[in-house]
Write a structure and sequence with these properties.
methyltransferase, single chain, Ribosomal_bL19_sf, Elongation Factor Tu (Ef-tu), domain 3, alpha+beta, S16 Ribosomal Protein, Chain: A, elongated, 14 helices
Length: 575
């Protein structure tokens, strides 16, 4: 005999209301092959793999444009949202991407207005970082509650510059207040005052579609968070003023900058954030507990965390491009003192980036070039033509090479004239007709002698490297040489008919596939060395005749015709 239990929908909703239901990710993949289930679960129960229902999946290894990267059963998701289930921040972003942005279905009716950052004193007072225009306004709302919808009655004790000290009804001891550290405080959207004309609350813009002026969709805006130890006034300099390029972009809403002071998370009256180093040595080290609280309170840990330090990876245009491709934004910690505790790197998987081999008092100074370099790569910040003319632009025709010298009007200034080669058509014809240029191609090792003028003196500088590219014909002909200097690949572009070139010599002939030549741009040290298939010893210049004699002496067979040449010959014969 079978027994069937029937439960009506009203009872089910009532049972669900008694739980704290979350829609979150549940790890299901193997090691180094992450895969997540999107599940509905009771947040009060331990994360033991149990859940109420699976409503989708997330595969981070798949490309962003792959439809199988995020799969959600929309009907089930809408049902659980309608009965009060709250998605985590990551899951809510998935819902926005899937156009499940109906305000009735989203949890953004709960607006975060502040966060409890630390305990103050022994009477149970806490420090609150308020997100309202005036910090004390957070206590004027009728109902302030946490993520579990527990309500709090707040009263202002002391108003500080960047935070307020608040008393909470029912919290009378430091131990009780310590349990509330990092608690986010929310209010209902309906409690906010009516926004003015063309004014919006941040929460109202969550999930809004961003478009270019021509109507092209390009996703959501980028948020850049920076954690520093200096006052916010420094960031009102000309870099972010309305007259600068990135300042105009900031004002237009193309990007955003949020600055946080780590001292807000200190737990003593002196706001101490550093201490002496174990093992001795001069200088102070950032404490892991203070910095950890700051990271937990400010950063979205789904975004990459960057630490500016001289010992990190050298910053260049390629690194900037990879940061810009982090479409949800990045978090930046500016180095200071002797550095930060090594345990913080392991806990939060922090990547170190160096702006160069030099020392400054603090990392806040070198944050400006990082911001400027990244922001100017965003859509609509610069004109497309301007991007293509930049030396290190990815779209540039110069392909990460330094540009040639530039001249403009007047033709003569303080005794200096524009080179005749740029102004005389007759001189251009003479150069292309009379200059002796040896035959060489990509893969050959070439030595160039360049005329260097220093004041009234002139000298010859030699530059030897592997030719990795030849472009154009006639007076516009150029070639690029690459060599390894101190373990790093260095490239230099020359105009074949430039009057600055005194002589060109072919040192060695080599056979290297062009694809390999470009692949080695990403390498350094021994890995960037090119192994030519043919090597001829001797310092004398090598000609095509000497190469043929070398092949003959070795007994090498003549090079076979390429497949393309054979196919062409067969087609001609058939015709």
């Amino acid at each position: 005999m079978s027994i069937i239990y029937i439960i009506n929908s009203w009872t089910l909703i009532k049972l669900i209301a008694k739980m704290s239901v979350k829609i979150r990710l549940s790890r299901a993949g193997a090691k180094k092959k992450p895969y997540y289930k999107i599940v509905v679960a009771d947040s009060r129960s331990p994360r033991d793999g149990r859940f109420i229902e699976k409503i989708g999946s997330y595969s981070p290894l798949l490309a962003n444009d792959n439809q199988k990267r995020v799969v959600v059963d929309v009907e089930k998701a809408k049902y659980w949202l309608s009965v009060g289930a709250k998605p985590t921040e990551r899951v809510e972003k998935f819902f926005v991407q899937l156009d499940m942005s109906n305000k009735k279905l989203k949890s953004d009716y709960d607006i975060c207005v502040g966060v409890i950052t630390a305990v103050n004193g022994v009477k149970g007072y806490v420090k609150v970082r308020s997100f309202t225009d005036k910090p004390q306004d957070i206590t004027t709302f009728c109902k302030v509650f946490d993520e579990n919808e527990k309500e709090y009655n707040l009263s202002v004790i002391t108003l500080k510059k960047d935070y307020i000290i608040v008393g909470i009804k029912g919290i009378n001891s430091r131990n009780d207040a310590e349990k509330l550290r990092n608690t986010k405080l929310f209010i209902k959207r309906s409690e906010l005052p009516q926004a003015g004309n063309e004014e919006f609350y941040h929460a109202d813009l969550i999930g809004s579609e961003a478009k270019l002026k021509n109507g092209t969709k390009f996703g959501v805006g980028i948020s850049l968070k920076s954690m520093i130890l200096i006052p916010r006034k420094l960031y009102t300099t000309r870099l972010l003023s309305r007259t600068s390029i990135i300042g105009k972009a900031l004002e237009s809403g193309i990007w955003d900058l949020k600055v946080h002071n780590i001292r807000d998370y200190a737990n003593d009256k002196h706001q101490t954030v550093d201490d002496t180093s174990y093992g001795g040595g001069s200088g102070m080290v950032m404490r892991p507990d203070i910095l950890g609280d700051a990271i937990d309170g400010c950063f979205d840990k789904t975004k990459p965390i960057i630490y500016l330090s001289p010992k990190g990876k050298l910053f260049n245009q390629s690194v900037a491009k990879s940061l810009v491709e982090s479409k949800d934004g990045i978090n930046v910690i500016c180095g200071r003192y002797e550095g930060i505790d090594e345990r913080v790197f392991k806990e939060y998987n922090i990547t170190s980036i160096s702006m160069g081999d030099f020392v400054v008092s603090c990392g806040d100074v070198v944050l400006f070039p990082l911001i400027d370099c990244c922001v100017r790569m965003l859509p609509e910040v610069l004109a497309e033509d301007a991007k293509k003319e930049e030396s290190f632009s990815v779209e540039s025709r110069y392909k990460h090479l330094l540009e040639y010298p530039h001249y403009t009007k007047p033709p003569e200034w303080k005794g200096y004239r524009v080179p005749e080669v740029l102004t005389s058509a007759k001189k251009i014809k003479e150069l292309t007709a009379n200059k002796q240029i040896p035959e060489f191609r990509p893969g050959d090792t070439v030595k160039v002698y360049v005329k260097i003028v220093e004041g009234s003196a002139e000298r010859i500088q030699a530059y030897e490297g592997v030719c990795i590219n030849r472009k154009f014909r006639g007076i516009g002909s150029t070639f690029t040489l690459r060599k390894i200097s101190h373990g790093e690949g260095v490239e230099r572009k020359f105009n074949l008919y430039s009057p600055r070139l005194d002589k060109i010599e072919v040192v060695r002939k080599g056979k290297v596939r062009r694809a390999k030549l470009y692949y080695m741009r990403e390498l350094s040290g021994k890995a960037a060395r090119i192994e030519e298939r043919i090597k001829i010893s001797g310092s004398a210049p090598v000609t095509d005749a000497s190469v043929a004699e070398f092949k003959k002496a070795k007994g090498d067979a003549p090079a076979a015709e390429s497949k393309k040449a054979k196919a062409k010959a067969a087609k001609t014969e058939k015709e």
